[in-house]
Every structure is written in structure tokens, then in C-alpha cells.
Design a protein that fits this description.
single chain, 440 residues, alpha/beta, Enolase-like, domain 1, TIM Barrel, 2 domains, 4-stranded antiparallel sheet, 13% strand, globular
Length: 440
């Protein structure tokens, strides 16, 4: 923690949160209009075992939370800003829980602040939404630090390790990714194990069609989105051996570490990856130490922010395992260019048909950098913080209009305590009356 002699550095003065109104803007990748490839094309998911949840991922609620934003203001008036997913529940957690650890704190104490938020929410958190909320707070603090110092975030976490950042593209059409200049393409697997042998055959035909469309040497990856099991993974990987699949991604439940060992043992020559739905260094420790994964793929907007991602990357580097972050736009770009064990970055196609390059966060920012011809010059990141300018027309709703009680005020006493207090007031009044009578 900072000493008293360093108190001239701005402290955290205020925390504000916002919900992004509408769709297609902000940090919830899946909060897009109907018809978008990411939600309304056949994609195998953990919910695909039920037929009525196969047609659209919105049917089972993948976009139910929506985007939210955190603004952290320093005592000198400098403002840091970040976006992620979580909607009104995320705003509530910020103001009613995490804010207490932040107001008055030195924003340079990123490790200290992360640990307090993580450990303070351990009884209900450790994974999922609470950690995703911590992530956005952490990113906003890093943005604040960069703006106070006048430096891009990547300069504060190690500096540049290259002059350009190369991308592969996740989308529905590998031919489009190739035409746009990306070095490789990743497609979602359409059919789940519960669709039987016919579904397996359709998956193989689907991948064969895409392999033929881009030629034998263009890297092609497959995203299974936690939807397979060990026997099915072993079977489909064997059936596609001649298709030269570059890697198989997130085949199993994030918690099935033993399963990853089994599929790697069955196919030691193939590459398997996972990690976007792992939420801490503790979970990644199991994945990394098992040495059953060829690449890990944390999401900086879900994992705990830049502070936790740096710890995971250091752990992976000790095992020579590459880190290729899942999506997250410029937040990931700053991380990747600063790390020697991060060879490239994912671009998650944000256009409705996946055939053009649009900003990952939609119209939330005015100047979000995007890859052109499959790469980005690192010099484009040379702006303070994450280098993003909030769009004045961004559809932001301050949390104070959504939450009860207003986050400007702390929660009052629980109803039971209020009743006890009222009852005690009555008792005190009676006692006082008796005293007055006895002295009269």
C-alpha cells in the first residue's frame, strides 16, 4: 500500500455505474439484435441437450443481463472508464458491496484492492457475476491510472513486445475471415451430443465444408462452447483428423479437469484449449499444472480484470503455455502486446453476418481500434489508459435511476432492526415518563 509520503497521488474519489440501454453496445457480447450470427445460428451449447433451446441462444437467456459500465473518478478529476456485462445486478454489487473498498484508496494499489474485493465476496462469489463485476472495476482503475500518468496501459504492465498485433477471427464464415486478412478462423460447432450419430455426421460435414472452402493450409479452429463430453470429443476429433483442425476449444465443462486429461491422452497430437469461463488464478492453476491444454484463453472482462490476468499469465509462462485471451477488444490488446507468451489475439466478429470488421463494443466509444487486414499496429494503442473515448451519444442510464435504494445513499437498517429500534424508542419513552412521575 502507498505510504503517507506518496499521498500527493490522486486517490479514488467516486464510483459511478451505468447500464447500457438497448442492444449492440457495450461489454455484453451477446446483447445484440435478433438475427445476429452470434445468437441466432445453430451453435452447440450446454443447453442444446433440450431441443427447444437449440434455435437461439437468447431462448435460454444468454443476453439476460446486458452491458454495464463503471466510472472511477480520481481526486484530481481524472476519470477512468470500463465496460463489461452484468446490467443492473452488477451496478448493485458495485455500490452496495465493492465501493466500500475503493473510496479514498490509492488506485495504484491494484493488488490490494483486487484481494479485498475478491476475498470480501468469497462467500457468494469466486466465479461468475461477482468476479465479472470486479473485472470491470479493475479495468476502470487501470484506465484511470493510465490517464493520470499519461501512459497507455500496456506501457504500465511490461511495455511492447512487438510492433503489430495479429488476429484470428471467430465467426460463421471462414472464407470471410480469410478474405478480411485474418491469419485463421474459428467456427462454432453446430450440433450437440444429444443429437446422436446423425448430429455427429452433420458436424463432420460442416467442418469438412469449411475446410474445403479455405483450402488445406488456412488455420481452422472449432469452438465447442462447453457442450461436449469426453467420449464425444474423442470421437469427433478422430473423425476430423484428416481436416487439419488447428485446435478444439472448450470441449468440456470448465470444471472437468480430469476430462481434459482424458481427451489429451486419447489425442496427444491434437491441440485442445479452454479458459474463457474460468474465473480465477486458482482455477487456472489446475488447468495449467495438468499440462493437458495447449493454450489457455482467459477473458479479462470476466476473470478479475488486468490485475488477475497478469497473475494467470505469469503462471502459464512458467509452463511455456501460450495465453490467447478470449475477445474483450482493446482490454485484451493492451495485455497481449505486453506479454511474450501471448502470440496473437482473437477478434470476435461483431457484424450481424460476421463478414465485416466492426468495433467489439459497438458504438459505445468513438475511437475503438479494430484490426485491418488481420492486424493492428501497436502504435494505435499509444493513448493514455486504454485509449477509448466515450461516445457522447452513448445510451447510458445512471444506476441511481434503476436501483432501490439510490446508490448515492447506503442501505438503511434491515426492517427487523428498524422495528427493534422503534420498540426501544417506545420503551425509553415509557421509562422517561415513569421517572418524571416519580420526581413530581
Amino acid at each position: 500500500m502507498a505510504s503517507s509520503s506518496a499521498r500527493s497521488f490522486p486517490s479514488i474519489k467516486a464510483i459511478r455505474t451505468f447500464v447500457v440501454d438497448g442492444v449492440g453496445s457495450g461489454g455484453d457480447y451477446h446483447n445484440v439484435k435478433g438475427g445476429h450470427w452470434l445468437i441466432d445460428t445453430p451453435i452447440s451449447t450446454p443447453m442444446s441437450r433440450w431441443e427447444n433451446y437449440r434455435a437461439s441462444r437468447t431462448s435460454w437467456g444468454i443476453n439476460v443481463l446486458g452491458s454495464f459500465c463503471v466510472e472511477v473518478e480520481g481526486s484530481d478529476g481524472t476519470v477512468g472508464f470500463a465496460t463489461g456485462f452484468g446490467g443492473p445486478p452488477a451496478c448493485w454489487l458495485v455500490h452496495q458491496h465493492f465501493e466500500r473498498f475503493l473510496i479514498g484508496a490509492d488506485p495504484r494499489d491494484t493488488n490490494h484492492l483486487f484481494e479485498q474485493m475478491y476475498r470480501g465476496s468469497m462467500f457468494y462469489g469466486r466465479k461468475g457475476l461477482p468476479v465479472a463485476v470486479i473485472s470491470v472495476i479493475d479495468l476502470a482503475i487501470w484506465d484511470l491510472l493510465g490517464k493520470i500518468r499519461g501512459e497507455p496501459v500496456y506501457k504500465m504492465i511490461g511495455g511492447a513486445t512487438r510492433e503489430r498485433l495479429d488476429f484470428y477471427c471467430t465467426g460463421p464464415e471462414p472464407t470471410a475471415a480469410k478474405a478480411m486478412g485474418f491469419w485463421g478462423a474459428k467456427v462454432p460447432l453446430p450440433y450437440c451430443p444429444e443429437e446422436g450419430h446423425k448430429g455427429l455426421q452433420k458436424n463432420v460435414e460442416f467442418l469438412k465444408k469449411h475446410r474445403e472452402s479455405v483450402g488445406p493450409d488456412f488455420p481452422l479452429m472449432v469452438d465447442c462452447y462447453m457442450s461436449l463430453n469426453v467420449p464425444y470429443t474423442i470421437q469427433i476429433a478422430a473423425a476430423c483428423k484428416d481436416l487439419n483442425i488447428n485446435w478444439w476449444e472448450e470441449c468440456l465443462s470448465p470444471d472437468d479437469t480430469d476430462g481434459f486429461a482424458q481427451i489429451k491422452q486419447a489425442h496427444p497430437q491434437l491441440k485442445f484449449t479452454t479458459g474463457e469461463h474460468e474465473y480465477s488464478r486458482y482455477g487456472f492453476r489446475k488447468l495449467i499444472e495438468g499440462r493437458n491444454l495447449d493454450i489457455i484463453q482467459p477473458d479479462v472482462m470476466w476473470l478479475g480484470g488486468m490485475t488477475e490476468l497478469l497473475k494467470v499469465a505469469a503462471m502459464a509462462a512458467a509452463y511455456d503455455i501460450p495465453v490467447v485471451p478470449h475477445a474483450s477488444g482493446p482490454y485484451s490488446y493492451h495485455f497481449v502486446v505486453s506479454q511474450t507468451n501471448c502470440p496473437f489475439q482473437e477478434y470476435l466478429a461483431n457484424s450481424p453476418d460476421g463478414k465485416s470488421v466492426l468495433p467489439v463494443f459497438g458504438d459505445l466509444f468513438l475511437d475503438e481500434p479494430i484490426p485491418v487486414k488481420g492486424y493492428l499496429d501497436v502504435s494505435q494503442l499509444d493513448k493514455p489508459g486504454f485509449g477509448l473515448t466515450l461516445n457522447p451519444a452513448a445510451r447510458l442510464i445512471p444506476a441511481q435511476y434503476l436501483l432501490t435504494p439510490n446508490p448515492e445513499r447506503p442501505l438503511g437498517q434491515p426492517a427487523v432492526e428498524q422495528k427493534k429500534s422503534a420498540d426501544q424508542g417506545i420503551v425509553n419513552g415509557v421509562v422517561e415518563e415513569i421517572k418524571n412521575l416519580s420526581t413530581s
